Amino acid sequence: MQKTNGSPAARPTFLEDARINSDNARSESDYDGASPGAHITVEAPPRPALSRRTTVRGESVKSISEALRLARSREEQETLLGEHELADDDGCYPPRSMDGPRAPNPHQSLPIYTTIHKIRRLIIASIDDPYSLEQLKSPRMNVAVIRPLVEHLYDPDDVSIVYCLLVNRVQFLREQSYQAHHQTVNITRANVCELIAARVLRRYDEDHEGREGLLMLANVLVAGFEPFQNAPLEVMNLNRTDIHWTIRWGLTRPEYQRMLTALEVAIVSESKNFLSTSACQKIVENVYRGRIIYTPTSFLDFLPDHYKNRGISLYDPRKAPYLNQYRLIVPRTRNILEVFQFIVLLVLYMLVMVYKAHTIGPSHLKFTIYELVFTIYAIGWVLDEIASVCEHGWTVHTENLWSFLDITFVVIFWTYFGIRVHGLATNDGSTSKLALDVLSMAAPILLPRLAFCLMSENMLFISLRAMMADFTFLTLLAVWCFGGFLIAMRRLSETQDGYIEHSVLTIAKWMLWIWFGLDGTGIQRSAEMHWLLGPTLMITFAFLGNTLFLTILVAMLSNTYTNLAQNATAEIQFRRAVLTFEGVKSDAIFAYRPPFNVLALLILLPLKWVLSPRWFHKVNITAVRVLNAPILLIVSIYERRYLWRRNRLLSPPRKHTWLTMWEHFGAHGDLQAVFETEPPQSVIDEMDDIDDVLGGEEWDQGFVNALRARRDSRATSVASGVWGRNMSRDPGIRRLNGFRRRSTREEMFTGSVAEV
What we know:
Layout: H1 14-28, E1 41-43, E2 55-56, E3 59-60, H2 64-77, E4 92-93, H3 112-126, H4 133-136, H5 139-153, H6 161-175, H7 183-207, H8 210-222, E5 224-225, H9 233-238, H10 245-248, E6 260-261, H11 262-268, H12 272-275, H13 278-289, E7 292-293, E8 313-315, H14 331-354, H15 369-392, H16 394-398, H17 403-426, H18 429-440, H19 443-454, H20 459-494, H21 504-515, H22 521-525, H23 533-566, H24 568-583, H25 596-608, H26 613-627, H27 629-642, H28 660-664, H29 670-673, H30 681-685, H31 688-694, H32 697-700, H33 703-712, H34 716-720, H35 722-725, E9 733-736, E10 739-742, H36 745-750, E11 753-755
Antiparallel strand pairs: 1-11, 2-3, 4-8, 5-6, 7-8, 9-10
Helix pairs in contact: 1-5, 3-6, 5-7, 6-7, 6-11, 7-8, 13-24, 14-15, 14-19, 14-24, 15-17, 17-18, 17-19, 20-21, 20-23, 25-26
C-alpha cells in the first residue's frame, strides 16, 4: 500500500476490506472454462448443524421425531411464565423494580445522535451509484456492501440501531424530493437503510431466544427514542426548543417529548419490506393480541392520566386483576369494540333515515327520538375519531385503511349538525330539512366502511383505497387542464348574436357528458357559440378527454393494482402494523365507550386541574371499571384461558372455522384430518431411519455428504441416468443441483464456492 509524505499506509476500512476479499475470492475461484466475469462466486455459507443427541451406550435416548415434537412443545410454551417467574400485581413481567408508578427509561444512555450521523456517513460512503432493489439483494452487493455494514453496525447491547437506520431512511427520502440530480441515489440509500434494518432485526431475533428475546425485540421496535439524545452540548444549544405547549398544559407525558419508536418511523417512511419480516411481524402480532404491553408515545391526550408509566413487558393474565382497565386499549380488543360501536352507529343512522319527516313543515323543527339518540351517540363517535388523529398524528392516522371514510363522515356530520342547530335557532323548517338531506349523503360512506372493517386484509379494499387516490388526483388534474376549454366556450357564447347565451353550468354539463361518453349534445350545440371555433373546441376536448385522458386513467389504475397485487403480502402486513400501532392508546378517553366519552371529557377534565395526579388516576380507573365492568370481565376470562394458547403443532391459523364441518364431508377432508392428531408411539418407533439421516455421522460431515450417501444407495440405473449427466469431466468435481462441489470432505468444508 502506498504511503503519503512518509506516513504509514492508512488501514483500509471494513468496506474496502470486504471488497478486496470479494475480489480475491473471485480471482481464486474456478470458472470451469467460462470467461472471467461471467460468474460471481461467493463463499458458501456454513450449513447449520443439528445439535448432537445424548447417547447412552451408543444408543439414542430419544428419536429425532420425539425431539422435534418436544421442541415444538417448548416453542409453544416458551413465552409462558413459569411458576418461579412471577409477574407483579398488574400482570407485567418482568415485575417493576421500584415502587414508583413511573418506570425509568432503560435506554437513556444510548448515543442516539452519534449513531444516526455515523450511519449516515457509512451509507453515503458505501452507495454513490443508483441501484434497484433487486440489485441490492443480489449476492455481489450482499457480500460487498450489505453484510459488512450489518456486521459493523450490529450491537447486541444497543437496541437503537434499527431506529437510527430508519431515521436515516426518512432523511434520504426527504432529500430526494428537492435534490433532483441525486434522486435515484438517495432512493437507493434509503433502500439500503431498510435492508440493513431488516437484517439487524433478524440478528436480534436469532441471537436472543425465549422470553428475554421477545422483550429484546419489543424494545427494538416499540421503545421510544429521541433523535438528539446524548448529543454534544453545542448541538443541544443550537437545537434547543421551548417546552411544547402540550407539555406545559399537561396534555402529554413530559418524558416522551420528541420521542418516536422504530415501528412508527417505519410506518411513516412506508418501509413495507422491513415491516413484513418475520421478526417484525412477531412483535406486531404479540402487541396486537396484548401479550406485549407498553405505554406508547403520543402527541396530544384529550383526557391525560399520566400517573402511571408502564415499561415494555409481557402480560400474564393469571396475575392481573379481573377488572383491568388497561385491556380496553389492547389493539385486538379495541378493534372488536370499534366494530360493534360502528354497527351501533350504522343502525341508528338507518333508523333516522327511515323515520325522518318527508314534508317541509313543523315536523322538521323537532327531534325524533331516533335522531336525538343518533346525534348524541355520533358526537361521542366523532370525538373518538378526532382523539385518534391527535394521538399519533395525521400522517400515521391516514395510513389506516378506512381513515378517509371516517374523515369524510366527520365532515358530513358536523355540516349536518351545524345546519340543524341553525334551523332550530331560526325556526326554519326548510333549513332543518336541508340538514337531514346533508345527513343522507353519509350513506355511501357508512356502508362501505363496514365492509372495510370486516375485511381489512382483503386485497380488493387495499387496492381500492390506492386506486381512489390515483383517480382523485387525475380527475383534479383533468379539471385544471380542461378548465381552459370551459372558459373559452363561455366567452364565445357571450359574443354570439341571435343565440341564447349558455351558462357555465350548461357548458360544464355538456363537457361532462362527453367526458364519460354519455351524450353528444355539446358537439351539436357548439355551433351556437361559433360556427367554426365552437365545434373545433368541443371536438378537440372530446378527443383529449374521452380518448386520451380516460386511457391514461385506465392505465394508471391497472398499474397501481398490479403493483399492489405483486406485493400483496407486504401490503397486508403493512396495514396490520398500522392497525396495531394505532390501536395502542395512551389517552384515557379511549377507555370510555361513546357517548360516555363525552361525559368523561366534560366531567373529568375539569377535575384534572383540581385533584392531584394520584387521586385523578383513582377517580378515572374507578369510572372506567364501573362503566365497562361486563366487558372487562369477559376479556379477563377469555385471556386467562386463550391469550397464550397457540395452534397445535405450530400450524398456520385456521380461518373460517365454521366451514370445518363441511370440509370433512368433502372428498379431500382426510388431507387435513391426517395432521390433526399426533401419531402413536408405535408409529414413531418405526421412524429410526430419520435418526440415521439427520443425526448420524453423515449429518456431522455435511448436508451434501448426507444427500450423496442417500443417492448412492439408489439403483444403478438411476445413477447412470440423470445423475450421470450431472457429473463433471473432472473426476474430482461433482455437480449437485447445479452447484459445483469438490468430492473430498476437507474441500467441502473449507474451499467450496457456489456459482450464482
